[in-house]
Design goal:
Layout lengths: L7 E4 L5 H10 L1 E3 L9 H10 L2 E3 L8 H5 L7 E3 L10 H6 L3 E3 L6 H16 L2 H7 L23 E5 L3 H12 L3 E5 L6 H7 L2 E2 L3 H5 L4 E4 L13 H6 L5 E4 L8 H9 L5 E4 L10 H8 L3 E3 L8 H19 L7 E2 L5
Parallel strand pairs: 1-2, 1-3, 3-4, 4-5, 6-7, 6-9, 7-8, 9-10, 10-11, 11-12
Antiparallel strand pairs: 5-13
Helix pairs in contact: 1-13, 5-7
Length: 333
């Protein structure tokens, strides 16, 4: 029996070596050796030639690009959980299946969320700069570099999915009181496990929280979910942490709130216009008001390998004529 032709797979960014090697073994794979984001022209060429495109969040796969796809393109196997950079409806209209890599980044992102909560509340980033930067330090003092205890504080989680739940479990172990706002209330057994309080009104929850963690996906419905009006409801001593997507918060309004002392601070791993970062946020970071990370929430060796393995499973399953396990539909967004 003749061997079936391998699908032509175009990968837009450099992936872990073990994943790239396996993809070369299994598929006719074109890799991005330089790891520079593909230009629009390069993406247009890729969708015109590939059977499978493997993009990342740095690639804009919009309707205009999908319109230029060649007849062979039948699968967009995203390397990542979020698909807000892909026009899933336009892909579906062209008969192109979209998949993602859910579940594998849950623990890593939850770890980073807790790290940012601690970093902002306890001024860890400021303290870490003192000795390496040769800042004059006279030794321990009763009133120097005082932060805030997180035990006993109220944490409001916006989005109680996999990551939000993982954050809640960690936060409960730190002695935080768990509150959450979600499209749907979670199972009673989970609420009991976390001793959590559900708020169907985001307004009501925000006004009462000491810490707010953003853990919902970015969709048209969640764009600027934390708007200027919502941010003004928060207590002036409250802090906000975002490890989801920058577009969920009105970043300009948040900056103004912190500059005016109407919010105590923020811990951000994502930005509304990344990779560009608002210069006013950088200024606030230098003043110790915010902690800024360059989108590191999922950056673990284990997480990246797990993502790659899911991409491979999705491609192989699709190429074998079956529905891939991580198919994304517009109704899911």
């Amino acid at each position: 029996m003749p061997q079936r032709k391998k699908p032509h797979v175009v990968v837009t960014r450099r992936l872990p070596g073990a994943i790239e090697t396996r993809m070369r073994e299994l598929f006719d794979t074109r890799l991005n050796i330089d790891d520079a984001p593909m230009s629009r022209e390069a993406l247009t060429e890729a969708v015109g030639q590939a059977d499978v495109l493997v993009p990342t969040l740095t690639d804009t796969i919009d309707a205009a690009l999908i319109e230029k796809a060649g007849p062979a393109l039948r699968l967009i196997a995203n390397f990542g959980t979020g698909v807000d950079h892909i026009d899933v409806e336009a892909a579906l209209a062209r008969g192109i299946t979209v998949t993602n890599t859910p579940g594998v980044l849950t623990e890593d992102t939850a770890d980073m969320t807790m790290a940012l909560i601690l970093a902002v509340a306890r001024r860890i980033a400021e303290g870490a700069r003192v000795i390496p930067d040769d800042v004059e330090w006279a030794g321990w003092s009763p009133t120097w570099m005082l932060g805030h205890r997180i035990t006993g504080k109220r944490l409001g989680i916006v989005g109680m999915g996999r990551i939000g739940t993982a954050v809640a479990r960690r936060a409960k172990a730190f002695g935080l009181s768990i509150h959450y706002h979600n499209r749907r209330r979670v199972a009673p057994s989970l609420e009991e496990e976390l001793d959590s309080t559900y708020w169907d009104s985001l307004d009501q929850m925000l006004a009462r929280m000491d810490i707010v963690s953003v853990n919902c996906p970015h969709t048209p419905a969640t764009y600027h979910l934390l708007s200027a009006r919502h941010l003004k409801l928060m207590k002036p001593e409250a802090i906000i942490v975002n490890t989801a997507r920058g577009e969920i918060i009105d970043e300009g309004a948040m900056v103004r709130q912190i500059e005016q002392g109407a919010l105590a601070g923020a811990g951000l791993d994502v930005f509304e216009h990344e990779p560009a970062v608002n210069p006013r946020l950088v200024k606030l970071a230098r003043a110790g008001k915010v902690v800024l990370l360059p989108h590191m929430g999922s950056a673990t060796v284990e997480g990246r390998i797990d993502m790659g393995e899911k991409v491979i499973v999705n491609i192989r399953t699709f190429h074998d004529g079956h529905r891939p396990p991580d198919r994304v539909l517009p109704s899911m967004l």
